[in-house]
Design goal:
single chain
Length: 329
């Protein structure tokens, strides 16, 4: 591993252990983290103000992932290196407890796994999330997490315990029901129907669960009928909110994304994506508005609120429940 200054002390990084069964060609770099909670610049009090990432790099290997940019400063390439060189903060739960004892987050929300999926395959080996969830629940911290993995179901009981004492929202990232889209762009993630089953399992356990409709991939997953079917499926399994997001390609991911699309997609589709993203990280604002409005309108037919409205109302519900005069009415 590159030991550039400012990341973490080289002495705190253990030599990579032997690969665990089922992890051929994947290397884990074990790190003793000094801090885990990161403040989001400009975050408003009581809002989404902190991030927490127990892993860097991700075996889901999503070709478009914005977190690829963050792998280069670690000394890894943003293509195959991001998929196979995974940094593991082995002491995550202990560090988190220390920070929470100091009251670091206050009444703010913590976003767990914003850069890479904290339920990627490595979690099956390292099991960092149970300790993290217990720490968050013990300190009654409001938190949300996003995943594309069915492994989250292993910890359903812990999510349910946390949801009984604080605001919790689990978001499943799902931009298409089409398995061709999944195989081409998200080869290591759970299939779309498995992600829907995870939402259903969370709701059955009493845990609020929503869907990050993301990324909507232009030219591949943006047909109106397909988007309608996706929203309908999310409502059917009990999602409480949706958040649409059209694909953006960060500078560190662009070359890898276009190389992979050239290999795995039909030529006409690759050419359209290359034309759309060769000189820009996002689609035109008018396109983004159109797709987002379409998804919100379909969600409204099912009574599904926008994500920001759900979070705002969750805060109000918490305030009401802790106000003795309102609670006893």
């Amino acid at each position: 591993m590159n030991s550039r200054p400012g990341l973490f002390d080289a002495a705190l990084v253990a030599p990579p252990p032997a690969p665990a069964p089922g992890f051929r060609d994947i290397t884990f770099h074990e790190q003793r983290a000094r801090t885990l909670l990161n403040k989001i610049p400009g975050a408003r009090p009581g809002g989404m103000a902190w991030t927490l990432n127990p892993y860097r790099g991700c075996t889901h290997a999503c070709t478009y992932c914005f977190a690829r940019d963050g792998h280069e400063p670690l000394g890894f390439d943003t293509g195959e290196g991001f998929n196979t060189q995974v940094v593991v903060k082995t002491n995550a739960a202990d560090v988190l407890r220390r920070e929470l004892r100091r009251g670091k987050t206050g009444d703010d929300w913590v976003m767990v796994g914003t850069s890479t999926d904290c339920y990627q395959r490595a979690e099956g080996h390292y099991r960092l999330m149970p300790g993290i969830l217990r720490a968050l629940a013990d300190h009654r911290v409001k938190f949300t997490t996003t995943t594309k993995s069915a492994l989250l179901r292993r910890d359903l009981g812990l999510f349910a315990e946390a949801a009984r004492v604080a605001n919790v929202l689990v978001m499943t990232s799902l931009g298409s029901l089409d398995e061709r889209v999944w195989r081409a762009f998200e080869p290591g993630a759970a299939p779309p129907r498995a992600r829907l089953a995870t939402i259903a399992a969370l709701r059955a356990a009493g845990v609020p669960a929503g869907v990050l409709i993301a990324p909507v991939i232009p030219h591949a997953g943006d047909h109106p009928a397909a988007l309608d079917a996706l929203i309908d499926a999310c409502a059917e399994v009990g999602a409480v909110t949706v958040y649409p997001d059209v694909m953006r390609i960060s500078p560190g991911a662009r070359d890898w994304f276009l190389r992979q699309s050239a290999v795995h997609l039909p030529p006409h589709l690759h050419q359209r994506l290359a034309a759309s993203y060769a000189n820009s990280r996002s689609m035109p604002a008018s396109y983004v508005r159109e797709v987002t409005a379409h998804l919100h309108a379909r969600a409204a037919l099912h009574g599904l609120p926008r994500w920001e409205d759900y979070i705002r109302d969750a805060g109000r519900r918490t305030s009401d429940s802790t106000n003795p005069r309102l609670r006893d009415r």
